[in-house]
Specification:
The structure holds 2 protein chains of 2 kinds. Chain A contains 23 helices and 12 strands. By secondary structure, chain A is of the alpha/beta class. A 6-stranded parallel sheet of chain A has the order 1-10-7-4-2-3, sandwiched between helices. Chain A has a 4-stranded mixed sheet with strand order 8-5-6-9. Chain B has 13 helices and 7 strands. In chain B, helix 5 packs across helix 8. Classes of the chains: A alpha/beta, B alpha/beta. Chain A: InterPro entries: 4Fe4S_Fe-S-bd, 4Fe4S_Fe_S_CS, FTHF_cligase-like_sf, Helical_ferredxn, LUD_dom, LutB/LldF, LutB_C, NagB/RpiA_transferase-like.
């Protein structure tokens, strides 16, 4: 793992990482089916609301307000949580957050914790850090459990095991789940039953639960987790100690603001009008639920993103995954090619900003993992202009690479040609000689870097006379 | 009014630019092609060379100052000019008066039947930037439906990107090709002889793939279809 575990050490830059994924027929089929289904369902769920566009704008405005006065809201949240009996911890980076959680777990006398599905804890590599400290973390979200038992990596924000089909899941359970019978079938009902039996024991024995947060209400100090399975609810209510790790930007100012997000999120995410379980807790309630509550507020590159006037809109993200599901690149490469817990279009703009170093070749390749088709922006419930941020980050990537690389020199040469119509026309005349390479109007092979195109596509032969030459000859 | 041919069409597809001129003149416009024009700077801008896009945006504003309208036979270049030139060099009359071809025909000229004749089976690919950046909507399809003799077949998953994406096609060539393969399958499923679009860049990509597998489907820019008439069929526009 690198200095910031948001990207996985050893993952090659995107084009190379995509190579293996593109050739994996099982992965391609799983993703095509899964993204195709959820895409259609989301469109239906969204079409039901006549004020969807206004909801999006409201979500955008609330998040922008939070981001513009984050310091105020964070202190308000800290005060509210503390008043209600919770303890707030601040973590600059992954290491600080992991150390805090490990210390708190040890103080609670636990060597095993149950986990609610959480992106923040994935981002900081908490499970690995806990394991290094002798604490075993058990993922209780079904898809996270599949990933964990398979010693795999997540490939989707909402459905981390989206790259697995049920036959593969059955094999993982048979191998890794002691309570799973050898005759376990690949029927969904049998798989969930096996997971249920496996997890129930853990819920009843765990002293500590760890969660993330979808929202935190600054006014009241209330934390909100939305989920589908109810396993999160088990974690949030049964163990005596609850530790929540939350990105700084997850704040909403008031309880009323939840109205907007609890409509935007489920419809965008699971294509539901309402998610099955919405858990809300405020500090500690004597005699009910966890009696110790810790809130770890995580920066880990967020203030770096916040300082960028264009890039900061990525912090509006509510982790719905709609952009992944509509992305034509994601559909073909899957999430692991992005080399980060945040895959897809949002990952391509969030991960490089959290890493904060465009000299990192893998991070710098992510903003280029897009054809800029704009489908992500169209579905984003908080109107993050992902193509805009992609192009913005590309400019940072080229600046980090400097002006002496082959691409930069090529771009400078093209700029020089386009700067003067005479040079441009001379280049057209020179380039049109390539027509002698053509057969039937098409060129099938070009030297590098044109070979990257002609590996799979022909190029039209340039005509002897460009349009401007024709215009001058006939009209000029 | 002026024609901004775009560097790609000027260099590789003069037939498309000639078709725009013929079409607009048939509809009563006086078309000029200022020879100072080169490129809108989209390749530089989208690849992360923002500074080098600036002089090109500046050139555009100067070259097209003073025209009532600038017509562009490309959704992505028109999008570049209208959406991003103001951020690079400030808004200018040239950027606000820039129209993608079908926008100009439908919104400015108020024409949906341009009197074209094109007796072929055609499928239409809505290019991403015309669709999502400019929002041209069903203007191209409305124009195509009015073309006599044309058998318009709906393209399955039409709104999915073809995988071109400018330098994406070479920087992520394999992913781009995987996207192209699916687009080609959809085109072939229609049984069309011609695939059309409002952007020669995307057509170069789709057509380049179809040519490689000898699919026998021809990429033709929308302007060439609309310029075609019974008296002067499109193949004769040379």
């Amino acid at each position: 793992m690198g200095s910031n575990p948001v990207t996985w050490l050893g993952t090659p830059p995107f084009p190379k990482a995509a190579h293996a994924a593109l050739g994996d027929s099982q992965l391609r089929a799983n993703l095509r089916k899964a993204t195709g289904t959820i895409r259609a369902k989301r469109a239906e769920a969204v079409a039901e609301l006549s004020d969807w566009e206004r909801l999006r704008r409201a979500g955008e405005a609330i998040k922008d307000d939070v981001l513009s006065r984050l310091d105020t809201y964070l202190e308000r949240l800290e005060r509210a949580v503390t008043e209600r009996g919770g303890v707030v911890h601040w973590a600059r980076d992954a290491a600080e957050a992991n150390d805090t959680v490990l210390r708190l777990t040890r103080e609670a006398g636990a060597d095993e914790v149950v986990k609610v599905k959480s992106m923040a804890t994935q981002e900081i590599g908490l499970n690995e850090a806990l394991a290094a400290g002798g604490v075993h973390a058990i993922e209780t979200d079904l898809a996270e459990l599949i990933v964990q038992l398979g010693h795999d990596r997540p490939s989707h924000i909402l459905v981390p095991a989206i790259h697995r089909n049920r036959a593969e899941i059955r094999d993982i359970f048979r191998r890794q789940m002691p309570s799973a019978p050898p005759w376990l079938s690949d029927k969904p009902v049998a798989l969930t039953e096996a997971a249920r039996r496996h997890l129930r024991r853990k819920f009843l024995s765990a002293k500590v639960a760890i969660s993330g947060a979808n929202f935190a209400v600054a006014d009241t100090g209330s934390i909100v987790v939305v989920e589908s399975e109810g396993n999160g609810r088990m974690c949030l209510t049964l163990p005596r100690t609850l530790i929540t790790v939350m990105g700084l930007e997850k704040i909403v100012p008031t309880w009323r603001d939840l109205e907007v997000f609890l409509q935007l999120l489920p419809r965008s995410s699971t294509a539901e009008r309402m998610n099955p379980y919405t858990s809300v807790w405020t500090g500690v309630t004597p005699g009910d639920g966890p009696q110790r509550f810790h809130l770890v507020l995580l920066d880990n590159g967020r203030t770096n993103a916040l300082a960028d006037p264009v890039g900061r809109q990525a912090l509006r993200c509510i982790r719905c995954s709609a952009c992944l599901n509509v992305c034509p690149v994601y559909e073909r490469t899957g999430g692991q090619a992005y080399g980060s817990v945040y895959p897809g279009p949002i990952g391509a703009i969030l991960a490089p900003q959290l890493v904060g170093d465009m000299h990192d070749a893998q991070a710098a390749s992510l903003p280029y993992a897009s054809s800029l088709c704009g489908a992500c922006y169209e579905v984003c419930p908080v109107r993050i202009n992902i193509p805009e941020v992609l192009v913005h980050l590309r400019a940072q990537a080229t600046a980090a690479k400097g002006s002496r690389g082959p691409e930069a020199l090529g771009m400078a040469a093209a700029g020089w040609v386009f700067a003067d119509p005479k040079r441009y026309e001379a280049a057209q005349r020179a380039g049109s000689l390539a027509r002698f390479l053509a057969r039937d109007g098409w060129i099938t092979r070009l030297p590098f870097p044109g070979s990257r195109w002609t590996a799979s596509r022909d190029v039209p032969a340039p005509p002897a006379e460009s349009f401007r030459m024709w215009w001058r000859r006939t009209r000029g | 009014m002026a024609l901004f041919a775009t560097c790609l069409t000027d260099t590789f597809y003069p037939d498309t630019a000639r078709a725009v001129v013929r079409l607009l003149e048939r509809l009563g416009c006086t078309v000029d092609f200022p020879l100072g024009q080169t490129c809108c700077g989209q390749m530089h801008f989208n690849t992360g060379y923002r500074e080098q896009a600036k002089p090109l945006a500046q050139r555009y504003a100067g070259v097209f100052a003073g025209y009532h309208a600038v017509v562009v036979p490309s959704g992505s270049c028109a999008g570049m000019v209208r959406e991003f030139h103001p951020g690079l060099v400030g808004a200018s009359p040239a950027t606000t008066m820039t129209y993608e071809l079908t926008e100009f025909l439908v919104d400015v000229l108020g024409v949906t039947d341009v009197g074209a004749y094109f007796p072929h089976r055609v499928t239409y690919h809505p290019t991403c930037h015309s669709l999502r950046m400019l929002g041209v909507g069903d203007r191209p399809l409305t124009l195509l439906r009015a073309v006599r003799g044309l058998d318009l077949v709906e393209l399955p998953f039409a709104e999915t990107c073809c995988g071109f994406g400018g330098t994406f096609a070479v920087k992520n060539a394999e992913t781009s090709t995987a996207m192209l393969a699916d687009k080609m399958r959809c085109v072939l499923d229609t049984g069309a002889e011609v695939v059309t679009a409002g952007d020669n860049s995307c057509l170069m990509h789709i057509g380049g793939g179809l040519s490689r597998v000898r699919a026998g489907v021809r990429p033709v820019h929308l302007a060439e279809i609309l310029a075609s008439t019974e008296e002067e069929p499109w193949a004769a526009i040379r």
